[in-house]
Design a protein that fits this description.
The chain is α/β, with parallel strands linked by helices and about 250 residues long. It has a single domain (about 10-250), classed as NAD(P)-binding Rossmann-like Domain (Rossmann fold, 3-Layer(aba) Sandwich), CATH 3.40.50. The protein has 7 helices and 7 strands, in the order βαβαβαβαβαβααβ. It has helices at about 20-30, 40-55, 70-80, 105-135, 155-175, 200-210, 220-230; strands spanning about 10-15, 35-40, 60, 85-90, 140-145, 180-190, 240-245. Helix 1 (about 20-30) links the parallel strand 1 (about 10-15) and strand 2 (about 35-40). The structure holds 1,4-dihydronicotinamide adenine dinucleotide. 1,4-dihydronicotinamide adenine dinucleotide binds near residues 20 and 193.
C-alpha cells in the first residue's frame, strides 16, 4: 500500500467500533500517526493495540466527546504525542431514542444533540485552534448521515443533530478556507455496524430495500471516502457534503 499519509497525524473519535475503527485503521495503513479516541476505554485500547501490532504508530486516549473539557484535552494530547495535527475525523455518535416528536423525551433530545452535534462543535473548535497555530494545511471530516439531508420518522433528535453537523461544516469551511484548512461532511446511508444493533430484523429488511444498490454499506467503504477527503487528493474540496449511500438520496 502506498503510504501517502506518512508524516501526518490523524485524530479519530468513536474509533473503537464501526466506521471510526475502519477510518483509524486506514489512516494508519496509509502511514499516518493515529490518535484513536472513544468513551469505551477497553474496546478502544484493544483496537489500538491491534493496530500497533501491525506496525502502525497509534495511541489511544479516552474521551467523552459530549464534554468540551475532554475534547480540548484530547486535542492537546494528540499534539503532545505526535507533535502536530493534520487530519481529524469527528465521527463519534449514537443512534439515540426512537420516538415520534410529540412523544420524544426531553432527556433523549438533550442527549442526542449533545453527543451527535455539540460534540462535533467542541472537537472542531479545538482542532481548528491547533491547526491555525500550526499554520499548515489541515483537513477535517465530520460524520453526518443521509439524515443530515432528509428526515425520517421516529428520529427527530438524530435528524436535527445531523442537519446541524452539515450546517456547521459549511460555515466553518467558509471561515477557514483561506487559511488552508478544509472541512467537509460525509453522509452515509445505513452502514452495517453495531450502531444498527438496536433495530429489529424486520426494520433492517425494510431499510435495506430503501438502498437501490440492495444492501447496507460497509464501514470500510465509508473510510475510503473519509481518507480521500482528508488527503491532498481532495485539495480543492471544502464545505461539501458527500453522501455515500448506495443511491438512497437519488430517489
Ligand atoms: P458504532 O456504534 O459502531 O461506533 C460509534 C462509536 O462511538 C462507539 O465506539 C462508541 O463507543 C463511540 N461513542 C459513542 N458515544 C460517544 C461519546 N459520547 N464520546 C466518545 N465516543 C462515543 O457506530 P457507527 O455506525 O460506526 O457510527 C459512527 C458515526 O457514523 C456516528 O456519528 C453515526 O451517527 C454515523 N452514521 C452511522 C450510520 C450507520 O448506519 N451505521 C449511518 C450514518 C451515519
Amino acid at each position: 500500500m502506498d503510504k501517502y499519509l506518512k508524516g501526518k497525524t490523524a485524530l479519530v473519535t468513536g474509533a473503537a467500533s464501526g466506521i471510526g475503527k475502519a477510518v483509524a485503521l486506514l489512516y494508519g495503513q496509509l502511514g499516518a500517526n493515529v490518535m484513536l479516541s472513544d468513551v469505551n476505554d477497553a474496546l478502544g485500547r484493544k483496537v489500538t493495540e491491534q493496530m500497533v501490532s501491525t506496525g502502525i504508530n497509534a495511541q489511544f486516549y479516552k474521551a467523552d466527546v459530549g464534554d468540551p473539557v475532554q475534547c480540548s484535552l484530547l486535542v492537546e494530547k494528540t499534539v503532545s504525542a505526535f507533535g502536530q495535527l493534520d487530519m481529524a475525523c469527528n465521527n463519534a455518535g449514537i443512534g439515540g431514542e426512537m420516538n415520534q416528536t410529540a412523544d420524544y423525551s426531553t432527556e433523549g433530545w438533550l442527549k442526542i444533540i449533545n453527543t451527535n452535534l455539540n460534540s462535533v462543535f467542541y472537537c472542531l473548535k479545538y482542532e481548528l485552534q491547533v491547526m491555525l497555530k500550526q499554520n499548515v494545511a489541515g483537513s477535517i471530516v465530520n460524520m453526518a448521515s443521509i439524515l443530515g439531508q432528509v428526515g425520517t420518522a421516529q428520529a427527530p433528535g438524530y435528524v436535527a443533530a445531523k442537519h446541524g453537523v452539515v450546517g456547521l461544516t459549511r460555515t466553518a469551511a467558509l471561515e477557514y478556507a483561506s487559511r488552508g484548512i478544509r472541512i467537509n461532511a460525509v453522509g452515509p446511508a445505513y452502514i452495517d455496524t453495531p450502531l444498527l444493533d438496536q433495530l429489529p430484523e424486520e426494520a433492517k429488511q425494510m431499510l435495506t430495500s430503501l438502498h437501490p444498490i440492495g444492501r447496507f454499506g460497509t464501514a470500510e467503504e465509508v473510510a475510503e471516502l473519509v481518507i480521500w477527503l482528508s488527503s491532498d487528493k481532495a485539495s480543492f474540496v471544502t464545505g461539501s457534503y458527500y453522501p455515500i449511500d448506495g443511491g438512497y438520496l437519488a430517489q
